[in-house]
Design a protein that fits this description.
There is one protein chain. This protein is of the alpha+beta class and 870 residues long. It contains 30 helices and 30 strands. The protein folds into 4 domains: 199 residues, LuxQ periplasmic domain, N-terminal subdomain (Beta-Lactamase); 105 residues, PAS domain (Beta-Lactamase, 2-Layer Sandwich); 153 residues, Alpha-Beta Plaits, CATH 3.30.70; 229 residues, EAL domain (TIM Barrel, Alpha-Beta Barrel). The protein is 46% helix and 21% strand. The strands form 6 sheets. The chain has an 8-stranded mixed β-barrel, surrounded by 4 helices. The protein has a 6-stranded antiparallel β-sheet with strand order 3-2-1-6-5-4. A 5-stranded antiparallel β-sheet has the order 11-10-14-13-12, sandwiched between helices. Helix 17 runs antiparallel to helix 18 and helix 24 packs parallel to helix 26. It is extended, with a radius of gyration of 42 Å. The termini are far apart.
Length: 870
């Protein structure tokens, strides 16, 4: 290509300008990149600092809330003990140390369970009448711990007598922080108690947070190494919290902060530095390359033209994207008349653009409270971006919810018009409504969930129900529902739950509520029932609906329901308390046979307290060596030989004496303690049996709960290994009903036990409902005839025939038959006459400790002559 001199000079000048501007631009970019890198490092440092600060604030809040919760727990516990009629009788009217300490009503249990180091009772004259220090009875006065703070605390507690309330405060006892609570001892809700002149006694609980307790307290809420500062200077080094105190000595707690920002610095700063180095190297290469390109700018003129064509294509692509976006674009003149609609408008609304151009925007978009054009005109006075929720009607007649955004168009300093976008948010609004519905309703049944029920219950309680028109809360739990899931699957269980929800709603009136709490638990809230008869009728209707058969295909299924009833205002006026009382009544319904309803009464709560006390005592008995094994001998009737003994558990309670198993085994099964008790029985029985002749065996009863645990065979193997007893000398007694709950699972467990070599005996044969076929199906070695068959034996011919038939049945299945309940010599001789293999009963020998049973091993056996003494 040929250039004239003038053209050549112009090219050189343009090339020099390109080089000059390129150099300046590259220098500016280099400074900008350096600034960005430096700013990034500063931002990382700032973020790390904020993360550390946020972590400290969160940990401070956790510590403060944890301290507050601990203080509230202390207040709750002291109120439970102080506002108690028994405490009034035994700590105010007369200090009964045996009741308070020996019977553990206000004794070492407060230290072992709640870790309260100090428990004091101060009488009306300010004397400390009762002290328990670290779980031990003591004579120390409360002033030895609280000093001059004791008297003001006692006065403050007495001032709360009429409110039946308590007070608490934080203190420093020596170098240890503590929470102290005090409450006046009152008669509680027990009427008719004796009174005594003078000031009331005050109960004081002290919870000292020793270094170990303080560390455990911090660890429980996610704070590391919580501690008391070692010095004044350490006390005010971040992080720390300062709790309110009773005097000028602050309660300051320090801890080791998590410091998440430090890890961020260790990771990101090296990376940013490396990135800066790499960026510098790349920038240097780019600079060299850019300068080279600048000198060749003229030679790239054709490439520039090509770039312009590509730019035009890019603009076309941008227009296409705008037209295919979900939003459509509009523009009006200053009077709100439409002058432009994007092509996307037709696809969204179904209207032709030409039909609406020249019309007001109000013909297209509507709002419930104001014209859309009026809102748009207001934007000339507003300088920040706003949106308007409005709606439009499509060509198909469908109402669509829209979000409108507008911007003022100015020209020559005046408003020339308005333009903006419209977004269709109908689906988002519907999704939000659906989410709100699901947040308050059960996804399976569509019933209100726990959240909705709580709000509904609070609203009904705020309406102040009366005794004449009480608010009825029914806690309902389905009976025999779990076997449906186990047998037919969860889909069948879901179908039953849906049908249950429909039936429950069919009984209730408008304004009542049935809510699913989860699983097979429901809450029913009913109002406008005037008397007990109407409430009973409602419960009967609910129960009748549930007891009707359910159909799974061609299969007919029956379930039941247990219900507990609590009333407001009679029983409670707080939502949580009303729910708790209804659950207590529900528990009694289940315990007393299910498929019924029970009204709450205060005695139920007292029964639960006693039950919890027994459960706590049973847990202590397991670890405190209070369990005992008694052995009842079992004799071979053919050769008059002592074949073995059945191990029977007893609980030697330190206060109540010997407790029989029927008083606590049921509780142990419900709470899961039966597994620990059974492990102890197995190990102890096997160990004791090692001292007997090798031909003798020991028999141990197995609870049905253990069969469901899934590890019975493993536990039996471990007991045999620990004791060293041969497996053939251990017999396990199993009730026949175990085979009915889950026959296949029971068979698998029995086969595992048989592989170990132990013997299996079906206990109380004839007392359950199993068919005779299970004697053939399950690998039993023997069976024990239920003692009820021995009541009329041998005088009643029918009883004699049944006993003889059971013995014959056992022999037909090659099982060793043991007759239980042998009480007389005549019964023994008749059993020998009909060839019963073994016998057990009071006539042959009562349950006895190991020491007495060991003496029995050396005595001659003369069945029918010797009777074991009581």
């Amino acid at each position: 290509m040929n250039f004239s001199p003038l053209q050549t000079n112009l090219v050189l000048t343009d090339g020099q300008k390109s080089t000059f501007f390129t150099r300046r631009l590259l220098m500016s970019l280099s400074l900008l990149m350096s600034g960005v890198v430096l700013l990034s490092m500063l931002m990382v440092v700032g973020i790390a600092w904020r993360q550390n600060e946020s972590s400290i604030r969160q940990e401070s809040l956790l510590l403060h809330n944890g301290w507050k919760d601990r203080r509230q727990d202390l207040m709750k516990n002291i109120r439970d003990y102080a506002f108690w009629g028994e405490a009034w009788n035994h700590l105010h009217l007369n200090v009964d140390t045996d009741w308070a300490y020996d019977q553990q009503n206000l004794g070492p249990g407060l230290f072992s369970e709640f870790h309260y180091e100090g428990v004091f009772v101060v009488d009306g004259e300010g004397r400390t009448r009762y002290s328990v220090i670290n779980g031990q009875l003591s004579d120390l006065p409360v002033e030895s711990w609280l000093g001059t703070h004791a008297a003001p605390l006692v006065r403050q507690a007495r001032a709360l007598l009429k409110q039946e309330s308590a007070t608490s405060t934080n203190m420093m006892i020596g170098s240890t922080p503590a929470i102290v609570a005090a409450a006046p001892i009152t008669t509680g809700k027990v009427p008719g108690l004796k009174t005594r002149a003078g000031m009331p006694s005050v109960l004081i609980f002290i919870d000292r947070l020793t270094p170990e307790k303080l560390r455990d307290f911090g660890a429980a809420i996610g704070v590391a190494n919580a501690r008391v500062p070692g010095s004044l200077q350490d006390a005010f080094i971040t992080p720390f919290i300062n709790e309110e105190v009773a005097d000028s000595t602050p309660v300051v707690i320090r801890w080791d902060s998590d410091q998440p920002g430090r890890n961020l610095l260790l990771i990101l700063l090296p990376m940013l530095f490396a990135a800066a180095v790499i960026l510098g190297l790349v920038a240097r290469r780019v600079v060299n390359h850019a300068m080279h390109n600048a000198m060749l700018c003229d030679q790239r003129f054709l490439l520039l033209m090509h770039s312009q064509r590509e730019l035009a294509a890019s603009e076309a692509r941008f227009r296409d994207v705008a037209e295919t976006a979900s939003d459509w674009i509009w523009e009006t003149n200053a009077q709100g008349i439409l002058i432009y609609l994007s092509e996307r408008f037709t696809a969204v609304t179904g209207y032709d653009v030409e039909q609406l151009l020249g019309k007001s925007i109000d013909d297209l978009l509507q709002h419930d409270t104001q014209p859309v054009s009026g809102w748009i005109f207001q934007q000339r006075e507003e300088h920040h971006r706003q949106t308007l929720r409005c709606y439009s009607v499509s060509a198909g007649g469908e109402t669509r919810i829209c979000t409108l955004v507008t911007k003022v168009v100015e020209g020559n300093g005046q408003i020339a018009g308005y333009r903006g976008t419209v977004s269709d948010v109908t689906k988002e609004v519907e999704d939000q409504a659906r989410i709100h519905y699901l947040s308050q309703h059960d996804a399976l049944t569509g019933l209100p969930n726990r959240l909705y029920m709580s709000e509904f219950l609070l609203g009904r309680l705020q309406a102040h129900p009366t005794a004449e028109r009480p608010l009825v809360l029914i806690s309902l739990d389905l009976d025999n529902f779990k076997p449906i899931n186990d047998t037919w699957g969860h889909a069948a269980g879901d179908s039953v739950l849906n049908e249950v929800s429909l039936r429950l709603r069919s009984v209730l009136k408008a304004g009542d509520l049935v809510s699913r709490q989860g699983g097979d638990e429901f809450i029913v809230i009913v109002s406008d029932l005037a008397n007990e008869q109407e409430i009973n009728n409602c419960c009967r209707a609910l129960l009748n609906e549930i007891c009707r058969p359910f159909y799974l295909g061609q299969q007919e299924i029956f379930i039941g329901a247990s219900m507990g009833i609590a009333l407001a205002p009679k029983d409670a006026m707080q939502a949580e308390e009303l729910l708790r009382l209804a659950d207590i009544a529900l528990y009694k319904s289940k315990r007393e046979g299910r498929n019924r309803w029970t009204w709450y009464s205060p005695e139920m709560a007292e029964h639960l307290v006693l039950r919890r006390e027994m459960e706590r005592g049973l847990r202590k008995a397991i670890v405190g060596n209070e369990l005992r094994l008694y052995y009842q001998p079992r004799y071979g009737l053919k050769n008059a030989r002592l074949d073995g003994a059945e191990a029977l558990i007893r609980w030697e309670h330190p206060d109540k004496g010997l407790i029989m198993p029927d008083k606590f085994i049921g509780l142990a099964e419900e709470t899961g303690l039966i597994v620990e008790i059974s492990d102890w029985v197995l190990t102890r029985a096997c160990t004791d049996a090692l001292t007997w002749p090798e031909a003798m065996y020991v028999s141990v009863n197995i609870s049905p709960v253990e069969f469901r645990s899934g590890n019975l065979a493993k536990r039996v193997a471990e007991a045999l290994a620990r004791s060293g007893l041969a497996a053939g000398r251990l017999e396990l007694e199993i009730t026949e009903n175990i085979t009915l709950e889950n026959p296949q699972s029971a068979l698998e467990v029995m086969q595992q036990l048989k592989k170990l070599g132990v013997k299996l005996t079906v206990d109380d044969f004839g007392a359950g409902h199993a068919s005779l076929g299970y004697l053939k199906t399950f690998p039993f070695d023997g069976m024990k005839m239920d003692r009820s068959y021995m009541n009329d034996f041998p005088h009643c011919s029918q009883a004699a025939s049944i006993v003889e038939g059971i013995i014959g049945l056992g022999k037909a299945f090659a099982l060793t038959v043991t007759a239980e309940g042998v009480e007389t010599r005549e019964q023994l001789q008749e059993l020998q006459a009909i060839a019963c293999q073994e016998g057990q009963g009071y006539y042959l020998g009562r349950p006895m400790p190991l020491e007495r049973f060991s003496l029995l091993l050396n005595e001659p056996v003369t069945l029918g002559i010797r009777k074991q003494p009581v």
